[in-house]
Amino acid sequence: MATVTVIGAGVGGLATAARLAAAGHRVTVFEQAAVAGGKLGRHERVTGAGTFRFDTGPSLFTLPQVAAELFAHTGGPAPELDLVALDPLVRHRFPDGTTLDSCAGAGFADRIGDAFGATAAQDWRRLWRRAGRVWDTSWRHVLTAPVDGPLQLAGLAWRLRDLAAIAPGRTLRGLGRRHLRDPRLRMLLDRYATYTGADPRRAPAALLAIPYAELEFGGWYLRGGLGTLADALLARCAALGVTVHLGTPVESVLVEGSRAAGVVLAGGTTVRSDLVVANADALHVYRDLLPSPRRAAALTQRSLGGFVLLLGVRGTTPQLAHHTVFFPDDYDAEFDAIFGRPARPPADPTVFVTSAADPAARPDGHEAWFVLVNAPPQGAFDWRAPGVADGYADRVLAVLAARGVDVRDRLLFRDVLTPADLETATRSPGGAIYGTASHGLTGLLRPPNRGTVRDLFLVGGSVHPGGGLPLVMLSAKIVADRIGAA
Question: Do 431 and 418 contact (CB within 8 A), yes or no?
């Protein structure tokens, strides 16, 4: 069995470490932060009223069978994960004041019919049949299989039905315009491009698989916060004998000949191993840890980032669901601002609010709000400039007030996190949430899991098969399987 060094204790790194340790490998994880979890972040604020706890990364847990398979494969179920089914999954507030609550399964089309009429429901059902084919094709050929380059995706051309479902050359926006006549449903569909950090006008139509995963199979909250997934993975790694070093940055991948032979830690200590798995943004790997200028140059089109407000709110806000999204009058203006040159924060952004009913998240008589706005990454825009973060926080609160939810006189506190903060916390270049943006004909192609030198593997949301908790755990399975088959 091999000795393995894992760079990063995010979900991808911990999941890979657990799988490899369960297979008998000796695994050591180095994490630069003081806590495990990576982008599955947590923030705690203690006040006179009590303690507020926030998830600062993913807020929706989907495809729980992926996590269940991971824990079953590495030693048994994870009773630590307490799933709470969400209905609605998301409450959508549109510019005209109408509201649509999403849910899992066929009932969502019925809700569309009640809110927008029979024609809108009929359009959605037709699109949903297409979405099912896209999901099936994506699951079989992309999400659960290694993809090292365009030739493997080109193999779909031999399966004409699969090729028709993926619709190469068509955008998610174009698919919505073709199937959906109601502009509100088009807006709802466009939003799923942002789940990969992309502009819907440039995102491939195959991303239709994303809403299908959420709206067909459902979504959950983890009682105690989604950060409990990181706790469960860390505990599983400990039970399997994985050594995890927190607060220990890796400065470079050690290369001897044409293979990865270990890592060099901050301060110069060399740690040798048979294999290296990097749970880090692919651009960070190829720009900083293993400089590969040609590979790095292909990863510079960054995904959107996130501007976050963490709010302690007095009282209750009945019009909010667990997740509520407030759309702007002009959605395109948001993407023009974020992906434009020069990039800038949207003046009238979509605002996404998570307010968990979990008593563990907030004191009695209060709410803990996670407010997310799509934003340009650090570098495309300077979030570190004096006054910028606080000024934009004021703007976001004013936008919420204009859309009927004014909490400025109910705030106990507000904490601000920008893409620059995410860059510092996770070493993700620019604080881009998803690495590279999923744009154009190659939008389905993430950087491959096999590295540019032998015995180096990449895992996580910036590489194949993509971002989001279930895909990151699938990434770990692909990497572990490749190592096991080597």
Answer: yes
